[in-house]
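Progress report, Aim 2. The chain analyzed during this reporting quarter is listed below.
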Amino acid sequence: MFENKTVAVVIPCYNEQTQILQVLRSLPELVDVAIVVDDTSTDGTVGVVEAEVRAQGAAGRIVFIKRPTNGGVGAAIVDGYKEAIRRNIDVTAVMAGDAQMDPVELPLLVGKVARNECDYAKGNRLFYRNAWESIPRHRYLGNAFLSMLTKIASGYWHVADSQTGYTAISLKALQTIELDGVYPRYGYPNDMLVRLNIYNFRVSDVPIRPVYNVGEQSKMKLWKVVPTMSWLIFKRFLWRMKEKYIIHDFHPLVFFYAFGALSFLVGGILGAYLLAYRIFLGRVAETSALASIFLLITGLQLLLFAMWFDMESNKNLR
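Predicted structure tokens for the chain:
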């Protein structure tokens, strides 16, 4: 327990037979139950975890869930969350099964939620003092790009590292959001932030140490993930606009976003057409060029105003 609050840690794993024991045996005493969710591993992960469960005996704190089919990391975490809800756990954290999350920092995340300073505490690797040297360069840049898009999509403009999975969440938040609708794969952290924002849950950014080169094997292909994730984030942005600013409580920023995007798109298409016309056919009318510039500038201003409105609307959710 942590300050009289029960604590669970959900550990999703897929082919982590070399790393999972290190995670389980390094969990601090504050953890009441470790919920390990195997996403149909094809190596010896299941045997390793089952052996550890037997070794701990009846007094052990490991709950082992084996998924019938491979659903992705998000689906595995949701299964763990449901078990935590069933057990009425006050604070539920998530740690990866590959030992890339330092258990020493678990009290920092759990404490934020346990003390009611926030509803969802999220690790931030990018603010660590030597993050640029510690994180592989392509991972750092890809993470920064997706985090920038997630700021716009989720409304949590202060969250700098959207992709980290080292988190802690309150029981109330878990009981409120629709877990069955959470994106099941690598887009899970981004989708989770959008869902939390719709219900105005407070999110705290907690600096943590990035951990790499501890034997982990990355299963993520960045060149595939970034385009897929970008499309997912765009769709979740539109969904949040509808749910939060139209259905739950109307806000005029939706008009700024809509008219801004339309104006910028029309101005961009017109500008591209006029440029091609000038290159291949000859002189274009000055009024046409001015119209394109006017639409682009107006669209950009409207989009920036919409973002500012969104920031103001969500500034109390830090």
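The chain has two domains: 7-245, 251-317. The two ends are 25 Å apart (CA to CA). These observations will guide the mutagenesis work planned for the next reporting period.
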